[in-house]
Write a structure and sequence with these properties.
Blueprint: E1 2-10, H1 15-25, E2 30-37, E3 43-51, H2 54-66, E4 70-75, E5 81-92, H3 98-107, E6 111-115, E7 119-126, H4 128-142, E8 143-148, E9 152-155
Antiparallel strand pairs: 1-3, 1-4, 2-3, 5-7, 5-8, 5-9, 6-7
Length: about 160
């Protein structure tokens, strides 16, 4: 099962290496990892998606808490969250397929961010399933390049 962990860490050089090394030493695969400074410039937030059962995640959380640079670890897997990925996708287009590709981009609420004679670069945000569905739909036209951020997530607060 995939688990999403939110880890608040010190915003210092080498912290990413220490956290990723903890996973590597225990042979746990990181499916996606996103890191950025928070509203506090001294703290960064890592959103880590890792595969494992509850026991594995509990062990990883305990090991993360032992690192001096880690302030807080939260398993968001069973929380109500807003999550998104960002993807940049370069698609091969021809004169006779350009309009159809642009219509597909529009259906998925994507945005063309670069256009060449024989390709388009599209920006797409959404959950993993939306991006996967877009890639599957666009692949027959000629998927040239795909770059994804991995998941970022924030808990949903009651209003």
């Amino acid at each position: 099962m995939l688990h999403t962990l939110a880890v608040l860490v010190e915003n210092n050089p080498g912290v990413l290496t220490r956290v990723a090394g903890l996973f590597a030493r225990r042979a746990y695969n990181i499916n996606s990892l996103s890191v950025c400074q928070t509203e506090n410039p001294g703290i960064s937030r890592m959103t880590i998606v890792v595969d494992g059962d509850d026991t594995v995640i509990e062990q990883v959380s305990k090991q993360l808490h032992k690192l001096v640079v880690v302030h807080k670890v939260t398993d968001l897997t069973n929380e109500t969250v807003v999550d998104r990925e960002l993807a940049l996708i370069r698609i091969k287009v021809k004169a006779d397929t350009r309009l159809e590709v642009l219509q597909i981009v529009d259906v998925f609420r994507g945005r063309v961010v670069d256009m060449g004679r024989s390709n388009l670069t599209v920006e797409l945000t959404g959950d993993e399933e939306k991006i996967d569905a877009f890639v599957k739909t666009i692949r027959p036209f000629g998927l040239m390049e795909l770059v994804r951020t991995g998941k970022i997530a924030i808990t949903r607060l009651e209003s």
